[in-house]
Amino acid sequence: MEESPSSQTLAISRKVRNALEQASWIRRMFEEGMRLKALYGPEGVYDLSLGNPVLEPPPEFHRLLLQVAQNPPLGLHRYMPNAGFPESRAAVADYLRRRTGLPFTFEDVVMTCGAGGALNVALKAILDPGDEVLVLAPYFPEYPFYIDNHGGVARIVPTDASFQPDPERIFHALTPRTRALILNSPNNPTGVVYTPQALEGVAEALRRGEARFGRPIYLLSDEPYSHLVYNGGKAPSPLPFYPRTIVVTSFSKDLSLAGERIGYLAVHPFCPSKGEVVDACIFANRVLGFVNAPALMQFLVRFLLDTPVALEWYQRRRDRLYTALVEMGYRVVKPGGAFYLFPRSPIPDDIAFVQRLQRERVLVVPGSGFGAPAHFRIAYCVEERVIEGALEGLRRVAREVGLG
User: Fold this and answer.
1) Fewest Cβ atoms closer than 10 Å to its Cβ: which of 9, 267, 307, 362?
2) Is the per-residue pLDDT at 49 higher than 50?
3) Which residue stretches of 244-377 are H helix?
4) CA distances (Å), 243 to each of 165, 206, 210, 229, 273, in order?
5) For residue 209, which phi and psi values (nearest 5 degrees)?
6) Cα–Cα distance between 284 and 365 in angstroms, integer?
């Protein structure tokens, strides 16, 4: 017997029902890709919608995995402290010391279920209901949901024309309820790497906000793409500029371990009340149901922290796409890192433009899903044949709308 409409409305929470209606455009494009691939076959669809690297993990990972599988340490798969194996936390702390010059110790590090898990842990630890978190647009679409998970309110702040943070906009967006700002550099969806000058300006804006409102404001630095920086560059860290920083990151992108859900958070060694903050994060890691990060992956990644990333693999794709798009007449900021481009839509309605590309069997994500309408996102962590096929469709649509 079918349910009546009134009983259907009670099947799930109204809050989740509303969230599903606003659900991530990335997920919608994934579902559209499945539909098109069923119709035309995988080779006939050019899917640039997902940040899901097809590049396999490095050989070092496979060698270590085989070695551990054949000679597992005693107790590897048992529970460990909720913060993770002390040896893994110590390895991460040593890596951060070398990278930043700051005196990280294992006590500053919590191993987590990816960067998404780390962000939820940090937000759970610092937010009271009604607290506000500033999010820079364009942004990763899950941020507002993560903030809402813990009773917070997302406040969206536009970046400048080059997608760099605007310190004055940030300062004027601060209120007595502001508790944190999320930064993501290299950025998803733009690929932009934030400059040291921009990060220094952000830090100063937050310091002014703390002085004005008399409460701590945290900087949550989401860094899963920090190793994916091109032309010999590096992604500047906010750590030298702002001690109330919590780094959250994962090995999903640089080591192509997205499905393994392994990452960490690290609290600045000089963060005021650091011990209380770390203890709150460890507690949150447990009560959110993560309990601890996956044991096998924790064990492995501590030996892979300095493993080189296949930058040339990504940079070749970035250069091919960027050059071709500019030649076609698309307007796009050249990304300095990550594996995304974020061109302007050649027509004002980015959703209509993305739907037009679907008729060419090219899948991209509308900028509206990232808080930046009139753009679209391309993820180039794909095979070269997908890029070449997509460029043909992008070229045909460019001609149709009069670009070039």
Assistant:
1) 9
2) yes
3) 274-287, 295-301, 311-328, 350-358
4) 19, 11, 13, 24, 11
5) -65, -40
6) 33
CATH of 80-301, one of 3.10.310.40, 3.30.300.10, 3.40.640.10, 2.60.40.10: 3.40.640.10
Whether 106 contacts 117, CB under 8 Å: no
Q: What angle do CA 250, 253, 256 make, to 5 degrees?
A: 105
pTM for the model: 0.94
How far is C-alpha 366 from the chain's CA centre?
Answer: 17
Sheet bearing 376-379, strands edge to edge: 340-341, 376-379, 365-366
Phi-psi region of 383 (alpha: psi -120 to 50; beta: other; left: phi over 0): beta
CA distance 359 to 36: 10
At residue 23, does pLDDT exceed 80? Answer: no
Q: Determine which helix (DSSP H) or strand (DSSP E) holds 31, and give its type and residue range.
A: helix 25-40
User: Cα angle at 142 between 133 and 234, to 5 degrees?
Assistant: 80
Note the pLDDT of residue 16. Answer: 84
Buried b or exposed e, range 263-282, using 16+ CB within 10 angstroms: bbbbbbbebeebeebbebbb
Distance of alpha carbon 356 from alpha carbon 294, whole angstroms: 42
At 108, list the tokens. Answer: 């500053």
Class of domain 5-57+310-401: alpha beta
* Structural domain boundaries in the chain: 5-57+310-401, 80-301
Neighbours of 101 (CB within 10 A): 10
Does residue 3 have a pLDDT over 80?
Answer: no
Residue range 374-399, pLDDT digits in tens: 999 999 999 999 999 999 999 999 99
Residue type at position 295: A
